[in-house]
Write a structure and sequence with these properties.
Elements (H helix, E strand, L loop, with lengths): L1 H65 L1
């Protein structure tokens, strides 16, 4: 019984080390993706701005055409 318990403790220690490595790698990857996410957000917002600007231009053109 003691041997089995000791074996479980060894396995648990290995799993904890693997988890720490996984968390570290995940943090590194998330940091490296941040500039890409920021760029995507910027382009998405720029697209919305351009569409809004085009809508205003069309509305003004339509108003001027009616008058």
């Amino acid at each position: 019984m003691k041997e089995e318990l000791q074996e479980i403790k060894i396995i648990l220690a290995r799993i904890e080390v693997d988890l720490r490595h996984h968390i570290r790698r995940t943090d590194i990857l998330e940091e490296s993706l941040k500039p890409i996410q920021d760029h995507v957000t910027f382009i998405r917002n720029l697209g919305k701005f351009i569409v809004g600007l085009a809508a205003v231009a069309v509305a003004v053109a339509a108003f001027l055409a009616l008058t």
